[in-house]
């Protein structure tokens, strides 16, 4: 059976686990980067090893020699002896100064005024918003290093060594969040990173750990690190800035987050089937593996079927006699998860493939194959654009710096679809006309005083609306730039920035949904206990009131089935009422059913009096309310409560939320509720942010790290 997406995520999480426990190491060699290694370096401050073998250094030195040799020839070389972009009409032999001019031109982004404070600079939230996040910057340096170590850029080993030193020392250059159009590479971020190496006193970076982490100017930072400023030689500036490292690194972070959310979408979809007392029927193999065998659809159906197999809440199939089965089939959002999520899994796998290739590519204006056999090295050297074809004596110019934003746009659209499904499941769960017996807004207290998830519904609508806006493509907003030389450009970094915004919003809506599902689980447990007590009272009180005029007994299954079925319907229809009046109406309406059934059981010459019916109504109303209040007052939500026992594989998620995260049940009682609903939802949100929920989601579908 198809499990490509689940297998991919499991392998990524296992790799991250190996980085965390020290058994695995990221390696910079030009072809070994993957998504887990980027995450480890970016978010976990993992220090990658580097290929510093003599063979690698020899290739790099040979590449440098080729560039320097070409710089002396009459034939111009782009970015070596010419200007850049639309200004490539100019020529110069001052190759080192040309690289300085390039960086000076690019460093035009808007940043905080790091010199405005006499003491230590403390950034305001508004100033932070101008900067690329530090984890994005670390990932960018890592990916760029992996590109230039391929000996296709003409940069010296000292550049590679010192850039690696910055990663080792947890340096994060301060680069502008906005500036790049990812056309001739992510010029802005890479220019600010590169200028740290030159000791430019007007370029700044974070350094230090914990409370000692501060912002330093480049010159001061290099002194602290015992590094000498580097004077760039021919082409080195261009080689450093002309690549897709920033958009590729952030895309790697985003795709991993999307994979986790895609699994969460499946798990929460299965959990919603349980909470709504839905059917397992729509997930059977015939519908997916034979009838419509799309790979993503098959995988989602397989996962949901596995999750629900042991559930005591999800029906195996529709039963016409089920009093809660009046709707022949579940609504689309409950039964249509495989068809809805499946295509997104396939899109995410394609995006993953594109990102994997990008992480180990040479991307730059000089990203092309100058195949020259260097006289001092028995290796074939590839130099970036222009590309020299030895066999045809021809120079090729290309555009491998063009980091098209399709991957991030696939991710963002998939995120929207996940969020849309989550929202529709959430709103059905909160709607007492659709949720098969749960109270409106999942209130535990009286509905007239407890509105529990009502405002959470509104918040979720807010999240979804913003996600839907962000789902629009960025690539359709390309405008011509740089003397019309960059008439098309990818906007890849802009696009993936919005994808990361969407990731955060989807985490918010899923956290809200999971909170509601766990709340609903405890309400189902209370419902189970209450109905058990009520049905026992129904048998005993009915026999007590009518046993002397009829042949009914407490073990008359046929008789009481005909009574309990309409009772369940009446209970489900009245969850919006407060308990003090609710049960009076329920048993007043139920009396008609019981009279109809009793007529078949009456002894000869016996009849049912109005007073006995009224007495039965009054007694059952009181017994029902007593059982209802007692059930709520004595229920103890915990990691392994009655709610836990009702669930299938999702019990691991319930246990995680109630146990490890300590998320509290909302009682709707100021005396019991010591925290606000948002405080509790935020606990789940942080579990998505720090990744601690991911292994639990894997466990639910039967995978282990």
From TrEMBL:
The keyword Transport does not apply. The keyword Amino-acid biosynthesis does not apply. Keywords: Lyase. Gene3D superfamilies: Fumarase/aspartase (Central domain), Fumarase/aspartase (N-terminal domain), Phenylalanine ammonia-lyase 1, domain 3. InterPro entries: Aromatic_Lyase, Fumarase/histidase_N, L-Aspartase-like, Phe_NH3-lyase, Phe_NH3-lyase_shielding_dom_sf. It comes from the Eukaryota. Pfam families: Lyase_aromatic (PF00221). Belongs to the PAL/histidase family. This is L-Aspartase-like protein. It comes from Lentinula boryana.
